[in-house]
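Lay summary. Proteins are chains of building blocks that fold into shapes, and those shapes determine what they do. In this project we predict the shape from the chain. Here is one chain we studied, written as its sequence of building blocks.
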Amino acid sequence: MNWKAVARSEIGTGHQKQEIGCQDYGNYYRIFDDVIVGAVADGAGSAKHSDVGAKLAVETVLKCFADINEYPQKQAFSQPLSKEEAQKVFAKIVNQVITELQKQADEKDYSINDLACTLLVFLATPDCIAAMQIGDGFIVMRSQESEYQLLFQPDKGEFANETTFITSTNALKEMQVKVISEKQEFICASTDGLEKVAIRLSDWKPFSPFFKPLEEYLHEPINPEDEDKYLMEFLNSERLNSRTDDDKTLLLCLFDRE
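And here is the predicted shape, written in a compact code that computers can read:
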């Protein structure tokens, strides 16, 4: 029994027209076969080096959890975290991300706000998921006990096209945290580029026909050479690009109990 996972980001058609690179980034790390951490980030369009910030934020998160793996602490994940414990863990990681972003800004002689990005993180075991979100984007999960469910309503700020970034002064205050103790089956984390096609914005319910094929894809044996091909073709499809011109990221996880 272990987690199957795949992550892919693709540039949006709007950024292609403006000759701007992809400002999304997503990745995952298996702490153990049955414990996985994932993170996605979306660089702020107004920030000069948000692509660098997004990648650095995600890689810092994964490194924090990888460092945990250096110690015999598997028992620490055998029991679900309480919401208070998860809040402390994620706050510590967010502070570490901010520290790394500030180091990068100091080294390159620019403002930390030039690295602004959203950040979504989850830690999942077969029986529990603990997750956090700063800014927009979404994390959707399906457990044995439920249909697809959205963990957090995306933070859209007080004004249109505004959200909270990890570099915002109120980032920790606005950080959303949730712990769900249910047998995990499927997790999808994404940046806001796919919100309008994956989430019914009228009531913030996941659109099942979007997620079901992605879950079924993970159920199939994945050839490493073809792993990226499916998601690349999906994320670059004309049908999808006709509905969103933003960068798009998918981080998909499936717990294989066989």
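What the prediction tells us: The mean pLDDT is 89.
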